[in-house]
């Protein structure tokens, strides 16, 4: 009798411990299949100011808005720096792709990857896998798409930057 009481007690303790541990694990880990919510861009990735919808750079299939005309050249000089920063903050830039970067065919908006701050759409799941094997190759293709038919860098290079000298580059601490 004592032996069965001991076993029952152990089983009960283990059951409570398992339930407590499971509760802790579920509260810490995201639900399976869920990802962090992405938000639309509201601030310049270079200097942190509120975006001006007339100031932007089209780069690697994304339209990145800026606070002023001087930020486009900084973004172009080191796009990974600013895309990765945006990804860490959960910011999703406006996608302006015209075709799948791998196949050149129309995109299926249900097939995409969020790659280091860029949402990239594909024509097929196989194209997505090819992209993930050589992303820099296909990011260059997205740049080619942008250069062929967009209003790239609207106003970005056309203004005097002297009025923005007080801004600090939040990505690297450099002013204009």
Structural notes for this entry:
The protein is α+β, with helices and mostly antiparallel strands and 176 residues long. It has two domains: 1-31; 39-164, no CATH class. 39% of the residues lie in helices and 18% in strands. The chain has five helices and seven strands; from the N terminus they run αβββααββββαα. The chain has helices at residues 2-28, 71-77, 79-88, 125-133, 135-149, and strands at residues 39-40, 52-59, 62-66, 91-92, 94-95, 108-115, 118-122. The strands form three sheets. It has a three-stranded antiparallel beta sheet with strand order 2-3-5. Strands 1-4 form a two-stranded parallel sheet. Strands 6-7 form a two-stranded antiparallel ribbon. Strand 6 and strand 7 form a beta hairpin. The radius of gyration is 24 Å and the shape is globular. The relative contact order is 0.15. Residues 7-35 and 150-176 have low confidence and may be disordered.
Quick synopsis:
39% of the residues lie in helices and 18% in strands.
